[in-house]
Amino acid sequence: MSALNVAKFGGTSVANFEAMSCCSAIIEQNPQTKLVVISACSGVTNLLVELASGIQVPEERQAIIKKLAEIHHSIIEQLSNTTTVAAEVNAILESVASAAEAASFQTSKKLTDHLVACGELMSTHILTQLMRERGVDAQRFDIRQVMRTDAHYGRAEPQVEELKQLAQKQLLPLCQQHVVITQGFIGSDEQGNTTTLGRGGSDYSAALLAESLQACGLEIWTDVPGIYTTDPRIAPKASPIAEISFSEASEMANFGAKILHPSTLVPALRHGIPVFVGSSKEPEKGGTWIRQEVESSPLFRALALRCNQTMVTLRSAKMFHAYGFLAKVFEILAKHKISVDLITTSEISVSLTLDKTDTSGGNPELPQAVREELAELCTVEVEHDLCLVALIGNKMKERPGYAKQVFGALETFNLRMICYGASAHNLCFLVNSNDAKQVIQKLHHELFEQA
Ligand code: ASP
Ligand code: MG
């Protein structure tokens, strides 16, 4: 393992001049930080996604491009030497305008990725210049040279082996000489087309790069000082967690604690790289360390909430005492690259929830073609407006009576699709979206506020 540290800054951390200056100060403080991975400035990816959806009215497109220009130029204006960086950003904005026009004729996932990647391409130009003006030897690097992915636009899969080789050859030597500033979220396929790793993918990029460069640490800087027992905006008594294991943190990320992209911890875990999560605005507040070995493993660690869930229930009397039904269902889902989150089964039915994190965003939907194929096997029922609540902890399945404590607190709510017992680290279920906040508040009160 090298003494190289990777730091990633999210959209709010690079939202404006002050925020970017905080990032630079954090980077300057740790001489081991040689690779900096950043997101687009806050709000930019959303605007680009809007353009990619194909806006017909030219004035509406121009209004969005104007907003994009304002976000970036308001930072550039505060730099001392603006000529080069302004020209670079303007060139990207021009390509945004022509791609947005193309999208107004015909949208595609490939074009969407080409467009949304522009956010990170711009923010990295600006941060590099800002850091140079603070006296840092910063060097911008286009990550598409090494972040090789497949061509699954909107949710591209990184090709880990190729990425490693390319990063060792092209990126490592640069990191040995400079502080390298690069883009999260984006990559390129074999043909050189731009791809993206899915919304929030910068964390994942940073982790993959940390793994490829055999880094000794990965810092994820965001707008909250670490991981909490639950979202403090929902339960104000939520408390920060100083240290958490990879397994617990992965469960949290998977089950909707928005703090980390769900795939982030996979490369970090593969390579045993400790991950720090903290707030770039308040670095002095500390944060959460995610490690393989932790000092305490409490029965209840945290509560996560993920809204906007779609539940699909498939029923068939033929399933009764038959074999191969589930295999057929999953074959259809796999063929259409539909990722399933939760699953519960009974003798004649199976319920599942869909996962939706690709770059085009929107509600998770079961595409019509999939629905039709499934309908040949069974009846298909789709329900929306559900939220997934996950209780994360340790050795829960070995502890008699804990379910009573959990469900007892939630007596008055209608809980669906309870998944209990398969994992030692989580218990989860769906609730109506109207009940979600109250469920979290009640459960947090019962399990985390009693000591
Ligand atoms: N800018 C991208 C997004 O907003 C990627 C990221 O922030 O991680 O989803
Ligand atoms: Mg983000």
Main beta sheet strand tally, sense and closure = 8 strands, mixed
Reading the helices and strands in chain order gives EHEHHHHHEHEEEHEEHHEEEHEEHEHEEH
Structural class: alpha/beta
Give the radius of gyration: 23 Å
Instruction: Count every beta strand, where a strand is a DSSP E run of 2 or more residues.
Output: 16
- Mean pLDDT across residues: 93
What global shape is seen?
A: globular
Small molecules in complex: aspartic acid, magnesium ion
Which stretches are poorly predicted, pLDDT < 50 over at least 5 residues?
A: none
CATH architecture designation of the largest domain: 3-Layer(aba) Sandwich
Pfam family, one: ACT_9
EC number: 2.7.2.4
Binding site for ATP: 8-11, 222-223, 228, 233
Organism: Vibrio cincinnatiensis DSM 19608
